[in-house]
Design brief:
Length: 476
């Protein structure tokens, strides 16, 4: 769910939240987030996101979303799913207020904000929350309900340091239904296509699908180390019986090493279709073919379905692109395996049939590299990957003067004997100016390697690094 989590509250608990297909034709994809309050309007259902902690309100330059009201409930006003931003006003990291954007107050209440649509039932409607009117939970900045709503810009003008903040019990951004006894009793509605950006970040669009396939890249230990990419599946269905995915990767940068089931897949499930023969493409179907076939009980969020392990081609840290295949499957076997390119099969309790959902998809560019690589002797301007007289001067000043050492102890051990002393200084001088007499031990510029302690540099005969390297050089 791209960082969103569904939460329900209330005693008694009558609220519910789920990712569903529809209703009608959502503005993006096939599904949306459904939030229903039930008989206890003092409770509620919400989507929460913690990824915007610390964002200044004054830095927001886009904040939009869409709603669909199935039932306004029993209250006097028209209702739709609303937004809440929890904010810190004084920089202490604690919440001081909450700002609330209600679609009902965007038409006919005040001239403080631009007029938007009149809220109606059973129609998808888009809301510009950045330009729209907000109320303050505490009434700060004169931002009150109905005719008193104010823009985010107004609020940020009164509180220039106001920023989104998470707390122990609450994430900073929420998409909400309920929390008003009477007014919200029996409300049912949906949200989709939440878009947000700041003056320094691109627009991020969140598409709430009843089924979602998201690729996630793990962290690589270094520019030559293997890494994994995971397929995470979200589904609102109760009984999922198979998963099919057609994935792509940049074959000019990485090679596929292995494919395994993810940690969320039952032990009895197997790959019933697997084709990795075309570089850059992976076609996989997972299911249980045993006589007592098991299903995955839902709904579930970010279930790890597939793990793919890759190796970089060459020594580099540049990210690769991983995505979903849009081309039609080729050949009868592939066509039979894939009714659509990405899907889940599920048991429909109403018809006792096996049906399928086509998910929304989200690719990934990655992975991030936790680079512990180093080149022996490069102790000063390590980002430049250069050995020169400055390294000699700084090494001498570290050994015999007052210059602090950098975090990579192994970079000082140019002869790799496990000691840092004058012999390393001599080796460095000779390695720079007379390498035919004394050579700097790998990893060096001839054999860069990775230089992780205990790992042999890849020249076929270099010995492991004796000393450690807590912080490597930047990636080549």
């Amino acid at each position: 769910m791209q960082g969103w989590a569904i939460s329900t509250t209330g005693t008694p608990l009558t609220a519910s939240g789920a990712l569903v297909t529809g209703p009608a034709s959502p503005p993006l994809g096939l599904g949306s987030a459904a939030l229903a309050v039930g008989a206890n309007g003092s409770g509620g259902a919400e989507l929460r996101h913690a990824g915007f902690h610390g964002t200044l309100l004054s830095d927001l330059d886009k904040l939009e979303y869409s709603t669909y009201s199935v039932d306004f409930g029993v209250g006097a006003l028209a209702r739709a799913v609303y937004l809440v931003l929890q904010v810190d006003l004084n920089g202490d990291g604690n919440p001081d207020d909450s700002l609330i954007f209600e679609p009902e107050y965007q038409n006919g209440y005040t001239g403080n904000v631009p007029t938007q649509a009149n809220l109606v039932l059973a129609v998808w409607q888009e809301w510009d929350a950045l330009l729209g009117g907000w109320q303050s939970f505490n009434g700060f900045a004169s931002a009150t309900p109905a005719a008193g709503v104010k823009t985010i810009a107004h609020y940020a003008g009164v509180f220039p340091n106001a920023r989104i903040v998470n707390s122990i019990s609450m994430d900073g951004v929420r998409i909400v239904a309920g929390f008003g006894a009477g007014a919200w009793d029996h409300f049912v509605g949906n949200a989709d296509t939440f878009e947000i950006s700041t003056i320094s970040t691109d627009v991020t669009t969140y598409d709430f699908e009843g089924v979602g396939f998201d690729l996630r890249a793990g962290t690589a230990l270094g520019p030559t180390e293997p890494f994994s990419v995971y397929l995470d599946v979200t589904s609102g269905r109760s009984e999922v019986v198979s998963i099919g995915a057609r994935l792509t990767y940049d074959a000019s940068k990485v090679s596929l090493q292995s494919v395994t089931k993810g940690s969320g897949i039952p032990a009895s499930w197997t790959f019933t279709y697997e084709n990795t023969s075309v570089p850059g493409e992976v076609d996989l179907v997972l299911t249980d073919t045993s006589p007592t076939a098991s299903a995955i009980s839902g709904p579930f969020t970010d279930l790890e379905a597939i793990q793919l392990t890759f190796q970089r081609l060459g020594i580099n840290c540049s990210p690769a692109t991983f995505g979903f295949n849009a081309a039609p499957p080729a050949g009868s076997a592939a066509e039979n395996a894939f009714p659509v390119n990405q899907y889940i099969h599920y048991l429909d309790p109403a018809s006792s049939s096996v049906l399928y959902d086509a998910p929304g998809t989200s690719g990934v560019i990655g992975p991030e590299v936790d680079d512990h690589g180093f080149i022996r002797g490069n102790v000063n301007n390590r980002a430049a990957h250069a050995l020169d007289i400055g390294d000699v001067t700084d090494m001498a000043n570290t050994f015999f003067g007052s210059l602090p050492a950098n975090p990579c102890q192994a970079a000082y051990d140019t002869n790799n004997d496990g000691e840092t002393d004058i012999t390393d200084l001599i080796t460095l001088v000779q390695g720079i100016f007379n390498s035919s007499v004394i050579a700097i031990r790998p990893p060096n510029f001839t054999t860069p390697g990775l230089g992780i302690p205990g790992v042999v540099a890849p020249d076929g005969g270099a010995i492991p690094s004796v000393l450690g390297c807590a912080e490597g050089e930047t990636c080549p």
